[in-house]
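Retro notes, item 3 of 5
We never archived the inputs for the pyridoxal-5'-phosphate complex last cycle. Fixing that now. Sequence and ligand:
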Amino acid sequence: MHCVNRQPVVIVKGQGTKIWDDTGKEYLDFTSGWAVNNIGHANPAIAEAISKQAHTLLQTSNQFYTVPQLQLAQILVENSCLDKVFFCNSGAEANEGAIKLARKFGATKRDGAYEVITAINSFHGRTLATWSATGKNHEGDPFNPLPTGFIHVEYNNIEAIKTATTEKTAAVMLEPVQGEGGVNIPSTQYLQDVRKWCDENNILLIFDEVQTGLGRLGTLFGYEISGVEPDIMTLAKGLGGGVPIGAFLANIRASVFEPKGEHGSTFGGNALTCAAANASVRYIIENDIAEHAKEMGEHIRSGLDALKEKYSFVVDVRGVGLLRAIEFDSDIAAAVVSYCNELGLLLNPIPPVTVRIMPPLTVSEVEIDKALKILETGFLKAYE
Ligand SMILES: Cc1ncc(COP(=O)(O)O)c(C=O)c1O
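Structure as it came back at the time:
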């Protein structure tokens, strides 16, 4: 189906930060499959885990435990502030589960509260509920009526959350840095104030870390930057290193599901995807990939700062770790991305004016320097 206007490129192979198309042309992949290939394309750690697991066991029903599932749950819980985990298959599904968990918390522990406050310019997925949670104007959506119970307020504004809070509020759901919305960074004070407000009012704090989790921001989880711990955290994208898997984690207080058929998934916790994710998370932790992402993020930042200094039409460069953006003074994001594609660099447009930069976390300085050169040539062509 025609859901996306694709670039005229057929990708056949990847290795680290590089990919090749069916004509043999080489590209630097600074999209990482939309912030997924955190440890690079064709990483042997994942390839071997998948191969071994494929020869052992692919799927069981969730009436049983499997070793990869237990190992993945253990590594996530031991390395995060949360206690329980549910495995699913995508980011939207992780958020959908987190919203259900918050609703049950509201129903049972906050006098029937069910509303979830989310931020304008957030992105939480494309199922009906996560689409409704996503902070955009849904008037005229072809999917209406959407599930109700989502209140959108200004990001990085604690007063907006306070004003929107009523006895119906069950949770506040935020991205620690907004990704799809243009790489928007909130203040630490804001996140601390949100935490305090939630605590004072018995409201859950959900962090959507589908994009910011697993090293992307230079810390294993994005919440570590502010030190503000959520009650529920959702993960997907980088979790499987390229294999489709999602998860939501919760602290004991928020873990209110009961084994009454309230939540489940046939493929959630599948042995193959858990084995791949286990290998990927282990690789990130054992090789301190988050620290490498922080260092490489600084390298990109100084390169982007230099471009901003040099060209007045570059109006902003921003980001954290290896989630970066460059903003122009006119609607050229799509053109910049097309020119860069032709020149061998894959980037992600956030039309009309912003281009997102999110290479694999294993990217090298040399690759970043090459990509910044191509980016400069690409935007100069777009401005011709
Ligand atoms: C913050 C955030 N949440 C949720 C999603 C949805 O994830 P998925 O496409 O795996 O459903 C995305 C995808 O871009 C995302 O960036």
